Amino acid sequence: MKDEAGKKLMFEFQTLSSHLEKTLGSLPYDFFEISDEVREQVELVRAQLKRATERYRHRNPVVLSRALSQPIGEELDYQELGNICNIGQYLQPKLDKVPNINSKRRHLFSTPGFCELNGADSIKAAELADKNGDDTKKSDSVTIPDDFRCPISLELMRDPVIVATGQTYERSCIQRWIDCGNKTCPKTQQQLLNFSLTPNYVLRSLISQWCEKHNIEQPKGSTNGRLRKSDGSFQEVSGDIATINALVHKLSSRSVEERRNAATEIRSLSKRSTDNRILIAEAGAIPILVNLLTSEDLKTQENVVTSILNLSIYENNKSLIMLAGAVPSIVQVLRMGSMEARENAAATLFSLSLLDENKITIGASGAIAALVELLQNGSLRGKKDAATALFNLCIYQGNKGRAVRAGILLPLMKMLTDTSYSMVDEALTILSVLASHQEGKTAIAKASTIPVLIDLLRTGLPRNKENAAAILLALCKKDADNLACIGRLGAIIPLTELAKSGTERAKRKATSLLEHLRKLQQL
Fold first, then answer.
1. CA angle, corner 169, sides to 166 and 170, nearest 5?
2. What fold, for 240-324?
3. Virtual torsion, Cα 48, 49, 52, 54, nearest 10 deg
4. Would you say residue 44 has pLDDT above 80?
5. Which listed residue, of 283, 304, 385, 499, carries a Cα 20 to 30 Å from 263's Cα?
6. Which 8-state DSSP code applies to residue 111?
7. Would you say the pTM of this structure is higher than 0.70?
8. Three-state SS letters, 336-389
9. What is the DSSP letter of 264?
10. Is-contact 458 497, C-beta < 8 A?
């Protein structure tokens, strides 16, 4: 009975995967004004669904083709599709504006739909799948052994590597997984003790022998080799070097459309893996991309600045981007580009500023004033990108005065008093850095920030209370006027409560402030 239930469930999942893949291919991206980044994510989901479907189709072609010929169930609607694809929240507001919703549904789901099978039908279908095993064997297609497939992409591995848990993956797939901040093994969910990737030469040899035996051509245009790093050690890299070289060449094309398309492809490739970031830089793309930052074609400019952002994630590329003189052009995009380009320009400046020496260069370029402008008038994402970049730049003492003179206190005060509280954390973090600078300290006090900070001591979240206490303490050090102001505004009660029940850091800051206030009262 368990086998029958398992077969039923497996078959329904396989059928659903096929229909989801086809449905995602029919989404009218332009109609819904879906951004390129969301579209990329949807396409990645679709690609995985397609691989899974093709894998099952080779094994059970008759059953799956019969299932796919069934009409779509009426209960499958936009919202359900959105929930499955994790884009429901984005699509739903748009759906209310769609005329003739039923005809739109028919358009979207014009591909063969998901068939609802009752228990008996599902079991029969699964049994029929087993019966047709012999037919599958007679097929011209060759079934790839599961051990030769990457658990992430389900594709034949060309550069298998072993992770700390002993599992094997395609290098580019697991590297992308790690680049996204994941710290567990995708297959076992065990914590990765380290992120080293060890080439699985034995499996690579077995895959090569298997390909030769079945007359299967291994992927062309790939390179598997070692790249000398700046410290003299070697790093193994693999990727489609022929494609990358061709795209870099097209970046210099006279055709605007060809340049735009090449930039779009490089943006996508540079997002996928560290190896791609290395190979794109090795192909000489960075100076060409920097020149294209000033392109009059806005779409090209968006893709170029995002490509540079992606490339900058790899540490060695940061210096190459700076050497190419990218900062002035990035600042120009930050001032005059589309909102998406401005957001990614801010994120690029943050990435580059992670190297301490770059904080000085970026700060002197006029970037801080442009970031403050984005912080004040940008989209929510733009404001967050600007805040992150400004915080990191202001770690360098010389940039704190620049930020104050650029008028950073005005947007920070708006963020602190915004009833949605969407960026209070960011505002407090930046203020805590500025408060350690005399010019910043004076400006914060003049901006009537102290009453707002005391209010946060009473009503804010634990981390807000902690940061507010830290800023108040910085403002009061060697400044009797600010200390007296805090006492007059009734800070003693919330500080006393914080000293008892706050976080460890909050307790220390509140206790120190209370001590300063007691000393002031004794004078």
1. 150
2. Leucine-rich Repeat Variant (1.25.10)
3. -110
4. no
5. 385
6. S
7. no
8. HCCHHHHHHHHHHHHHHCCCHHHHHHHHCCCHHHHHHHHHHHCCHHHHHHHHHH
9. H
10. no
Side-chain half-sphere exposure of 195, counting CA atoms within 13 A: 12
Mention every residue, 6+ apart, whose C-beta is less than 8 A from residue 423.
380, 383, 384, 387, 415
| The architecture CATH gives domain 146-199 | 2-Layer Sandwich (3.30)
CA distance 21 to 42: 10
Single out the residue of 226, 169, 160, 159 nearest to residue 192, CA to CA: 169
- Three-state secondary-structure class, residue 190: coil
Q: Which stretches does DSSP call E strand in 364-473?
A: none
Helix (H, G, I), strand (E, B) or coil at 228: strand
Task: State the DSSP code for 222.
Answer: E
Q: Per residue, what are the HEC states of 116-151? A: CCCHHHHHHHHHHHHHCHHHHHCCCCCCCCHHHECC
Neighbours of 518 (CB within 10 A): 11
Q: Residue 83: which residues within 8 A CB-CB, separation 6 or more?
A: none
Q: What is the rounded average pLDDT of the residues 361-390?
A: 95
C-alpha–C-alpha distance, residues 306 and 318, integer Å: 14
Classify residue 225 by its DSSP letter: E
- The DSSP secondary-structure symbol of 158 reads S
Which tens digits make up the pLDDT trace of 417-474? 887 878 999 999 999 999 989 999 999 989 989 999 999 999 888 989 999 999 999 9
Stretch 321-350: mean pLDDT, rounded?
96
Looking at residue 296, its amino acid is E
List Cβ neighbours of 65 (8 Å cut-off, separation of 6 or more): 57
Residue 130 CB contacts under 8 Å (≥ 6 apart), including other chains: none
Query: Could you give the CA distance from residue 96 to residue 13 in angstroms, rounded to a whole number?
Result: 30
Tens of pLDDT along 468-501? 999 999 998 888 888 888 888 888 999 999 999 8
Residue 313 and residue 178: Cα distance in Å, rounded? 13
What are the tokens at 251? 């970046």
Candidates 345, 342, 361, 364; CA nearest to 353 is 361
